[in-house]
Sequence to fold (444 residues):
Amino acid sequence: MSETLASTSDTTVLNGTSGMHTRTEKIAAGLKRRHAVEKRFRAYGLMGIGFAVACVVLLFSTIIGNALPGFQETRVTFEIEFSKELIDPEGSNDPKVIGDANFRKIVRDSFYALFPNVSGRRDKRELAKVISSGSSFIVRDMVLADPSLIGTTQSISLPLSADLDQFFKGGISAEVAESERRVSDKQIGWLRHLIADNRVESVFNTTLFTAGDSREPELAGIAGAIMGSFYTMIVTLALSFPIGVASAVYLEEFAPKNRWTQLIEVNINNLAAVPSIVFGLLGLAVFLNFFELPRSAPLVGGMVLALMTLPTVIIAGRAALKAVPPSIREAAFGMGASRWQTIVHHVLPLAMPGILTGTIIGMAQALGETAPLLMIGMVAFVVDIPGGFTESATVMPVQIFLWSDAPERAFVERTAAATLVLLGFLVTMNALAVVLRKKFERKW
Fold:
């Protein structure tokens, strides 16, 4: 019987040991599965990040690749005789007389002198298309700025036409049949003759940053759009920042917690997600049709963008105020400060870095908006650089939109160049927000 008990005891121990081994194996298998799931999840995350980075790299490489030629322009240098008989025969130096002179003839005759063998009327018209059609205006402005040029002969550098500029940069190939390209074999031959005479050079395209819009790609610039964006952003900041901060302070520090304030908070959060074109419709109905403010003006554009930016500023301001520890308020109250003094002297300065960060992000979003400005007429073709808040103007995103719809190939590179400039402004503003947050934020 003792042998039977011993046998039973041994069997129980073996069964227990076997059960422990089974549970251990199950636990190990479960851990292995969880580790495998974790590895797969991390791999999926890395794949997602890699795909996002690849898309960003592809986007920027495409933009930069198209934009780099836009920062270069091709110019031809030749001697121009500023004939006194054609410009100011009486020597009055009157700007009106000088401005009415036939500078087109002056430029073309000087350019024709480089090709004495070209005599036919048709050939001369084709030869005149080698240089920009706006060359006469460039020369006129030079003489108006410096009347002492009258009666002299000067070596002047003028831009090539957009088509010849594209050929020089490799955008148009001479191997293509003449009927399928915008430049003729004769024009290519004349350009090569100028290149052989060292009269053609590629320089930095200062026109892109100093001129307004133009129908001719080689004369088009973003200076007008930059100034329009500048005036628009000033109006947006002047309206959205004080109103947004005041609203955030009231809702967070003074407003009672009831259904009305809850309704206001819900509507503010909803307004932050409303499509921007809705604000454009509001501006069209209220600012233009009802108040009859000037169309296509930075004043109206800034007011529309301020409405769009306000929810972002209010939400960021409330979050920054809420992040200030209650002990700051309690200490101020304990020292006898009023609620207004506590907020102005203690809470608001500590919350200001977060408020500024939200404001800059909201301004960066407004800088890149197009749809609401299209609704109030800021899509107009504006040649002159605006000089005030009520003058007709456009902004950078709208300028990019207009150029992207232009049929000329030369506008493609200028569209990419303007996009790169706009992205530079946006990246700078977001970087400024990060720097301000890092510099002024406090650890509690």
Remarks:
- The beta strands are 72-81, 153-159, 200-204.
- The chain has three domains: 2-68, 72-212, 223-440.
- The two ends are 76 Å apart (CA to CA).
- Residues 223-440 form a domain with the MetI-like fold fold (CATH 1.10.3720.10).
